[in-house]
Design a protein that fits this description.
The chain is an all-alpha fold. It is 55% helix and 3% strand.
């Protein structure tokens, strides 16, 4: 008897594919959380290392545990010596145009150099070790690729700096101000995880095969690189540049919609209210101040009004990418590194999902409906 197929909505919308204790997004409420904690509240009150600990161990650390965890992960930032020649070759071969593709290549080499084994063959401690290594080394790789591509020497890792300040230091070679480091830290915390998005689901599919942590993270990076997923913060800021004077925002938006273009930085697949990440980042941007933040607020207002007029019945408000680009620009992150900054945080979330999925022994194997020509069973015998 033929198997009974269960219909799924396009894009698997509203399909539950797994159980998770990592977090969830409640789009109708404009709320998302990591474990039992509001993600926005964590961003406002905790350090990135404390939230990273939460994703690894399922609870927030004590002060002593947080200090020990931060000290340990800071020792994992150094790129293996065997990988350095590959990193330089990749950096000089087009990493500036495709930073996430370059990261995938180098992380694959790192996974090989570190001899990462399939999660199927490892216990929880060994899987956790591999996940921590790759998450800790990702910022070092990304910054080195960027600087070599710019004709600069990579900045050696500094184990005395926390993650957010260290990221800015790796990019610029200068210790950031406390204000800028905290702004980036809040952004990183707010973007660690966001439900079963495309890249997270991809990571879990690969982990379900029993593959190594590096393979699952590299697969997630491939999904993440798409402009409909992680690749929009710089495009949203490009739109702000194209608009220029906020007085042009309404006319620019009407013209873009007339051309059938999507307005980058607005709308979300899940939220039916304001994106809480955008609200957080808006407050950070306005707190940092300056002309760019003022212009962004005015443009957001006018674009939202036009979208309400032209897209009746749809809530198309500013999403995380709109103000993410503003905050990163304010803090001196090069525009080409906006999406890679997103990856610095999201690799922690992917790692948590990989570890959770690895505890299951069931491969993710959905079905597809064949809609091609009717097969002829005897065709190969004629």
């Amino acid at each position: 008897m033929a198997d009974t197929l269960i219909e799924a909505a396009p894009g698997l919308a509203n399909i539950v594919a797994a159980d998770t204790a990592i977090g969830d997004v409640r789009g109708d409420e404009g709320f998302y959380h990591y474990g039992p904690y509001s993600a926005v509240e964590l961003a406002a009150t905790r350090t990135f290392e404390e939230v990273w600990f939460l994703f690894v161990h399922g609870r927030l650390p004590s002060p002593d545990e947080a200090a020990a965890f931060a000290a340990h992960t800071a020792t994992l930032r150094t790129i293996p010596a065997d990988v350095a020649p590959i990193l330089r070759m990749v950096a000089l071969g087009g990493a500036a145009e495709h930073p996430l593709a370059a990261l995938r290549t180098v992380l694959s080499a790192v996974a090989t150099a570190l001899d990462l084994r399939p999660v199927w063959d490892l216990d929880d401690d060994a899987r956790r070790r591999d996940a921590l290594l790759l998450a800790a080394i990702t910022p070092t790789v990304l910054a080195a690729l960027h600087r070599i591509g710019q004709g600069l020497d990579p900045v050696p890792p500094d184990p005395t700096l926390p993650v957010a300040a260290h990221w800015l230091y790796l990019l610029t070679g200068r210790r950031p101000t406390a204000e800028h480091a905290r702004a980036i830290e809040q952004y990183l915390i707010a973007t660690v995880d966001h439900g079963f998005n495309a890249s997270t689901f991809t990571a879990r599919v690969v982990a379900s095969t029993g593959a190594d942590v590096g393979s699952a993270i590299c697969a997630a990076l491939g999904a993440f690189s798409g402009p409909l997923h992680g690749g929009a913060p710089d495009r949203a800021l490009d739109a702000l540049d194209a608009i220029g004077d906020p007085a042009n925002a309404a006319a620019w938006t009407h013209a873009a919609l007339d051309r059938g273009e999507r307005i980058m930085g607005f709308g979300h697949a899940v939220y039916r209210t304001a994106d809480p990440r955008a609200e957080l980042l808006k407050s950070i941007a306005t707190g940092l101040g300056g002309e760019l933040a003022d212009r962004a607020v005015r443009v957001e207002r006018d674009v939202t009004e036009v979208l309400a007029q032209r897209r009746h019945g749809r809530e198309l408000r500013a999403n995380v990418e709109f103000y993410a680009g503003v905050v990163m620009e304010q803090c001196g992150v090069p525009r080409a590194m906006f999406t890679p900054t997103f990856a610095v945080s999201r690799v922690v979330g992917w790692s948590a999902h990989i570890l959770e999925q690895a505890r299951s022994r069931k491969i993710i194997r959905p079905r597809a409906r064949y809609v091609g020509p009717e097969p002829v069973r005897s065709a190969l015998r004629e």
